[in-house]
Amino acid sequence: MNSNSSIKGRGSQKNTSNKFSAYSYETRNDFLEFCRLEGEVADKNKTQYIPIFPKTIVNKVTSPDVGMSYSMNMYQGCEHGCIYCYARNTHEFWGYSAGLDFERKILVKRNAPKLLEAKLKSKKWKACTIVLSGNTDCYQPAEQEFQLTRKCLKVFLKYRHPVGILTKNSLILRDLDILKELNEYGLIGVNISVTSLSEETRRILEPRTTTIKKRLEAIRILSDNGIPVNAMLAPIIPGINSHEILNLAKAVSDNGALSMAFTVVRLNGAIGEIFTDWIRKALPNSADKVLHQIQECHGGNLNDSRFGLRSKGEGKIATQIHDLVRLAKQTYFKNKNFPKLNTSLHESYKCGQLKLF
């Protein structure tokens, strides 16, 4: 694979138009020529952190296709730059593009820990696992500076509340101390995303994520400490990583993962345009084949919005993927089980010692 991307270190190679805006963004050739002649940089490709202060932080998940009831995100936008990311479209709600803006304009919810604590102390709240990163990765590069994920984990521990984590960054090991404490009470479950065993594939699909070696190492270290890990082999993209399913399953199982899950890629909203532009630049010789195979999984379209089918796909290629996943689970996860998290402790910790009187 040879990446011909002109904007280094980014997944998207353009800013798509925001469907909620009357304006569109275009980089004109005459502007680029002007910058060249003037010796100026047309695009500095810098990441910008923008503080925001929402009123709530915990979101109820209503989609039947997502294996969680509640999620929370400390950051909107994600510097990892995964080209297929379904969360890209949510950046349009903030007035930005789902393309480069999603990777370079990161909204930081500075008050996330306080909002979470208020939620967990609410008399109406009943303990139910809240998953960090239901939308964007809680251990993306911004976390190194703001440490909002670590602060929120301390809140979960304080109130003995179950929490799930979904990430593809080995930065999670920084918080091993808190994760071990949470695990003593059965309050933590971790989902590590591993989409390929090829570094070359990872670099073009997920340009600012941690290496595959470090992700497998994270699974091993967490598992060695008794922390349950589910491996997310997602998304499976026919023609790019679909041939790796069995090898991926073996690798994550060998490193201690207790279970695995998958999705078939779907390119909803603006992501279809972003992905198509990307693959024609990054993998020009494979572009048509991959796009056609994705379409074959979704009734001739790049996207399918039907609940129950949109993340599973249908047709011959999707069936082949499902068969491989079934074989992988039977072969590598036959006697393994991911535990249910403990929801019984939170009520007595909700109001601190006052609950004792």
Automatic annotation (TrEMBL):
Top-level division of the source organism's lineage: Bacteria
An example molecular function term from Gene Ontology annotations: metal ion binding
Stored PROSITE patterns: RADICAL_SAM
InterPro entries: Elp3/MiaA/NifB-like_rSAM, MJ0683-like, rSAM, rSAM_sf
Residue stretches making up the Radical SAM core domain: 64-301
UniProt keyword annotations, A-Z: Iron, Iron-sulfur, Metal-binding
The UniProt record lists the keyword Chloroplast: no
Keyword NAD: no
NCBIfam families from the UniProt entry: rSAM_PA0069
Designated name of the protein: Radical SAM protein
Natural source organism: Maribacter hydrothermalis
